[in-house]
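Escalated from tier 1: zinc ion holo job.
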Amino acid sequence: MNQRWRLIALWLLPIGVVLLIAWQILSSGGLNDLGNRGPTVAPRNTAVSRMSYGRFLDYVEAGRVTAVDIYDGGRNAVVEAVDPDLDNRVQRLRVDLPGLAPELINTLKQESISFDIHPPKTAPPALGLLGNLLFPLLLIGSLIFLARRNSGMPGGPGQAMQFGKSKARFMMEAETGVKFDDVAGVTEAKQELEEVVTFLKQPERFTSVGAQIPRGMLLVGPPGTGKTLLAKAIAGEAGVPFFSLSGSEFVEMFVGVGASRVRDLFKKAKENSPCLIFIDEIDAVGRQRGAGIGGGNDEREQTLNQLLTEMDGFEGNSGIIIIAATNRPDVLDSALMRPGRFDRQVTVDAPDIKGRLSILEVHCRNKKLEDDLSLESIARRTPGFTGADLANLMNEAAILTARRRKEAIGLSEIDDAVDRIIAGMEGRPLTDGRSKRLIAYHEVGHALIGTLVKDHDPVQKVTLIPRGQAQGLTWFSPDEEQSLVTRSQLKARIMGALGGRAAEDVVFGHQEVTTGAGGDIQQVASMARQMVTRFGMSDLGPVSLEGGNQEVFLGRDLMTRSDVSDSIARQIDEQVRAMVKHCYTETVAIVSSNREVMDHLVENLIDKESMDGDEFRDVVAKFTEIPEKERSAPILD
Ligand code: ADP
Ligand code: MG
Ligand code: ZN
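Tier 2 regenerated the structure:
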């Protein structure tokens, strides 16, 4: 014990010295300043007595305050007040303020009390230098401290890791309050996890027949699909405490802190068993070891090792179940997935249309909807939305409803909220002029190709109201839950994306095309390249020519990564170019032969600013035949 105190003193010494010097410089600097600019730090002499903020407000109201001097960026003030009981004698009082609040300034103005705000003093140069020195000194101090303890203490290196204990960063919720009813649209995952509730509530049912209760489950799925929510629901249903911690919080600057956090977490959990431990973003610690230039991240590996040790260390029936979540199961270290660790994987995917409908029902429980608003049509409009997106959508719609001072959420609020979530904030409409015309032709180009090419998704809406980065937008309604895309659909999408540029080209001429098609062209390039290199849809045949688009693990893959040869790379480029060129020629042909209908559509669009799919198709149908689109009907029962 004696030794420890000596060590602490050793550590505190440099800090003390530094603080002393800082104080010296500060006070002398303050004095120098007094002469010319008036005091910049509230005078701290004892002759001025203190007053509470509440009292100060009372004094203001009573009209007793005559002047206020505000210091330290509004954190304290010296107030001059008169005392009617003492012959209106002037008192000077110090007040601590909650900050420079505009309300206070307004009140002072209203009461016409004279006030002055003294700017905070700029630190003298020496102090700045000192500030720079302070950090390394502190660091050196603490390093010495740590090193001393490592070598000098009987406990050895392990002792240093007590360091993490002081700021345990995990959260514990005794009662999550979430039930399985609150999670919708992920039926399979829910079924899998309902069993876990029984593990926690009645472990004897399994242990009595000699079954090992699984220790860890891995929830795999994209962000926002409800992984955290599911874990909380399990704890909520089982009525056990919920410990949670995010993988990224394990990884700290100091080696060993993460490992010690893991140890603390498990210690606390054991004290509170039965309970559930939730580790979010486990890929932050659980990445394959040995990856990374220069031997990888020591800290992460130590943390991971600690986690594995802890998981092995408790018996299967200790009443603790660990649930981890990730969206990158492919990068996890295989040691994590071994039997007895996270050996059960549950996939939590983005919901299908039925799932979306039931999620919407959950999130509409506490909201007022117009009677004729059909949740089904919202579910249909939102393919690809996750549970979090849908929750966000209903919330945005509710906010819009309140802003418009309506009683209940209606279809127009939902529509606006969907658009806003997908494409960003609505901007101001363009003023009429040449560029509005050009944008109109560009969008009509996209929409017309989308309508006239058989395999393209149908147009849902065309608009000239800017949103996010886009000046105008064309929305298509994608086929419900389409997982396989055909070659002709991909080709149709390329043509649709080229439609904007083609229209500019045909109508305004080769020299007048604009940068507006930049985003379209990027998309076209990536679609065409994938058709060649990933989907085997070119003359090069069904060969995969790139190792997918996996993230390269620095260091591990850098050396061994096989790339395509120069000559293949050239052939890929040629194929991509030929494909895009061919599509562009076809697109221009369609646009040119439908010039008349385009002009009509553009007049219409400039007039109305937005056209929905049916309006658009009605105009087109007057001029030319629209091919029937094959759609898989969504199943809803
Ligand atoms: P994840 O952990 O998968 O990223 P969360 O569980 O944190 O997603 O989800 C965020 C929020 O989105 C939840 O609090 C909930 O409001 C909503 N949400 C997500 N998935 C669902 C779902 N399946 N059912 C109901 N609400 C959901
Ligand atoms: Mg989460
Ligand atoms: Zn475009």
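DSSP finds 22 helices and 14 strands in the chain.
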